[in-house]
Specification:
This is DUF4381 domain-containing protein. InterPro entries: DUF4381 (IPR025489). The chain is rod-shaped, with a radius of gyration of 37 Å. The chain has a domain of about 110 residues. The chain is mostly helical. Helix content is about 60%, strand content about 0%. Helix 2 crosses helix 4.
């Protein structure tokens, strides 16, 4: 007869121990998903820095060109030389146009008109800009200085935004 409080005899075998969890995984090296995220963030950061520097350069160039236009207008108010103003405005237009069309410095007549038309300005502004080409060779009495400076300013504001230029292929379709 077995006593009621008696336990069965131990089974032969190794003694059992408590369950132990494995150690926490080390944080380095990160999983492949973290590497991908890091590369993506680095690429976005580099693209952002590139875009920011490009914007700063564009704004600085725009301020310089418009500042030069202001200096030309102020110089004209000071000395009243209309021929010098017309020549300087024309050269400024050509320098800015050269950034988008390398042939802009050598263009005359219709080719120059097509280059100016690549920037979307109204017809009156375009006519005023085209008149600068002839004003260099005319007497200064027939020259509307204020209108020319305003037309050049309007054209330059749009021309200094590269996205505002029409593609070069458009000039052949218009003509």
């Amino acid at each position: 007869m077995m006593p009621s409080s008696a336990q069965p005899a131990s089974l032969p075998g190794p003694p059992l121990r408590d369950i132990h969890l494995p150690p926490e995984p080390f944080w380095w090296p990160p999983a492949p998903g973290w590497w991908t995220l890091a590369v993506l963030l680095l690429a976005l950061l580099l693209a952002g820095v590139w875009w920011w520097r490009r914007q700063r350069r564009t704004l600085r160039q725009r301020r310089q060109v418009l500042g030069e236009l202001d200096r030309l207008a102020q110089q004209h108010r000071h000395d009243g030389d209309g021929l010098a103003l017309a020549s300087a405005l024309h050269q400024l237009l050509r320098r800015v146009a050269r950034q988008h069309d390398a042939q802009a410095t050598r263009q005359r007549g219709d080719a120059w008109r097509q280059t100016l038309m690549r920037v979307p300005v109204d017809a009156a502004t375009l006519q005023q800009l085209l008149a600068l080409d002839q004003q260099i060779y005319r007497p200064p009495a027939s020259f509307d200085h204020a209108a020319s400076v305003a037309a050049v300013r309007a054209w330059l504001r749009l021309a200094l935004k590269p996205a505002s230029w029409k593609p070069a292929a458009m000039e052949h379709a218009d003509g």
